[in-house]
């Protein structure tokens, strides 16, 4: 029986996941390097993708959903003239018959405009979305035909960076739930040649950027970051000690709406004297505790 890992202290580490491994494998390797666990992460990257993967431990795992639900940035390579059964380079790849001509740069620029702001996107069948209680990709691999329901996605920025031959590079800022593979597929459909996602890097997670990431092979306990560092850029509520204690007991406390917050419901990080003490939901001038915790 293996030696039990020590409990992970509250906080996290931002790594750069390499191409060729799953997000779960990257997480497992980080746990071994830290000799600690369990860890969680904020958004899966496919094996053929690289980029930012935020790993969380201890009380920080309570913030997993909040840290996942924000804008992400990607640099993507799109290859025209072929289709993919998975909408990316995993394939299988196939050509339309007869082979169509490749699009011009002007055609691609024009087609991108229809996706800016957002659109109704049909997720790839090779995805982890549950369909009738089972992951879609498992059903597809059994040869089943899976009807994926469309969903509204938000595209804040979509820019053509380069175009050469059959391949272009685009940069994307998008909201949660967006499949870049599906953008590549739909872009190919829009220009009439077909296309698939041939490369992908996630370069930003909310306020976390690529320059702050640690290569997976350099993960050590010394590179661990505090929860306060990780959530510093998220919407916050400042409370005093009496209010913190009441929230920890599950009681609501009155609080003025912060600047820029509209009336209604908004999940925010609760701070007290420079430390994060939990999550609260802002409702019409009252903080409703959601996930509070005590820290030494």
Overview of the molecule:
The protein contains seven helices and 22 strands. The chain is an alpha+beta fold and 296 residues long. The chain has three domains: 6-70 and 207-230, Pseudouridine synthase; 72-205, Pseudouridine synthase; 236-292, Roll (Archaeosine Trna-guanine Transglycosylase, Chain: A, domain 4), CATH 2.30.130. The strands form six sheets. Strands 2, 4, 5, 6, 13, 14, 15, 16 and 17 form a nine-stranded mixed sheet that branches. A five-stranded mixed sheet has the order 18-20-21-22-19, covered by helices on one side. A hairpin with a 2-residue loop joins β15 (195-205) and β16 (208-209). The longest helix has 12 residues, at 23-34. The protein is elongated and about 70 Å long. The chain starts with 5 loop residues before the first strand and ends with a strand.
The CATH architecture of the largest domain can be given as 2-Layer Sandwich
SSE topology string: EEHEEEHEEEHEEEHEEEHEEEHEHEEEE
> What is the CATH C-level name of the largest domain?
Alpha Beta
Report the total helices.
7
- At the fold tier of CATH, the topology name of the largest domain is Pseudouridine synthase
Structural class: alpha+beta
Helicity, as a percent range:
10-25%
Which stretches of 5+ consecutive residues score pLDDT under 50?
Answer: none
Instruction: Give the integer mean of the pLDDT values.
Output: 87
**Count of distinct strands:** 22
**Shape label:** elongated
Q: Give me the CATH superfamily of the largest domain.
A: Pseudouridine synthase
Please state the CA-atom Rg, rounded to the nearest Å: 22 Å
Q: What is the first-to-last residue Cα distance?
A: 33 Å
